[in-house]
Design brief:
Layout (H helix, E strand, L loop, with lengths): L2 E3 L6 E3 L5 H9 L4 H11 L1 E3 H8 L9 H13 L3 E6 L6 E6 L1 H4 L1 H15 L22 H7 L9
């Protein structure tokens, strides 16, 4: 992995801490992360067992409690989700929900959906998974998005 030294210290930073796109891909590229975020987008607040039940078999395989626990800890450390402990009931309940940072993934998923619908082929338009992120997001208009971005490439020739 490419590293760069922080200007203010001798600390070496991985490229994903310097590149905003790689940072997003570092999060979304990990197994189960997209699915956990999608479940919380479509359900607002879920307990650990509810997340595990919704993921089990829905995406082709089951997620173990240990794996889900690790995913939730990382997403919480990244500030994408938050947890709330409700200890006035027995057994104690822990709920997870998206933070403002996590809520912004709807924009990313909308753009990804638009790209997938446009370029992914006919099968991309026929997904039947009830909780798939595509069911609760409208695709963004790629041509409208293109107009809002200032192109960084220059014309040659």
């Amino acid at each position: 992995m490419e590293h760069e030294t922080n200007v203010n210290s001798n600390e070496v930073l991985p490229v994903s801490q310097r590149c905003s796109i790689l940072k997003v891909l570092e999060i979304l590229g990990r197994k189960w992360f997209v699915f956990v975020i999608a479940e919380l987008m479509s359900n607002s607040v879920l307990s650990f067992s509810e997340i595990q039940a919704r993921l089990s078999g829905e995406y082709g395989e089951n997620i173990s409690a240990r794996t889900l626990s690790n995913v939730l800890k990382i997403l919480e450390a990244e500030g994408i989700i938050a947890r709330r402990v409700i200890d006035n009931i027995r057994p104690t309940r822990v709920e997870y929900y998206l933070t403002e940072k996590g809520d912004d993934f709807d924009i990313i998923f909308g753009a990804l959906k638009a790209w997938g619908v446009k370029w992914g082929g006919a099968l991309q338009k026929q997904c039947k998974a009830n909780t798939c992120v595509h069911n609760f997001l409208s695709p963004l208009d790629l041509s409208e998005l293109r107009e809002t971005f200032v192109p960084l490439r220059t014309e040659t020739g």
